[in-house]
Amino acid sequence: MKTATVGEVQKNFGKILKEINAGEEITITKRGKPIAKLTALGPKSEIDWPDFYSEAIELKGKPISEIVIEDREDRF
Asked: What percent of the chain is modeled with pLDDT above 90?
């Protein structure tokens, strides 16, 4: 694991991004104390997305678009 100061990160951000993409972890220090760690997120294929469709609930009543149209008709 490499370390870099806040100033080094600001000056060499492109180089640091390349190192992170290559698998390197970088600890950022400020006045000699670690304050953050930069790591790659990893491949997107590993993201386990929830099934939002199966969790959806069925709404009853008028669609909101009809309610808005009716409300606008009352004002004119």
From this structure: 45
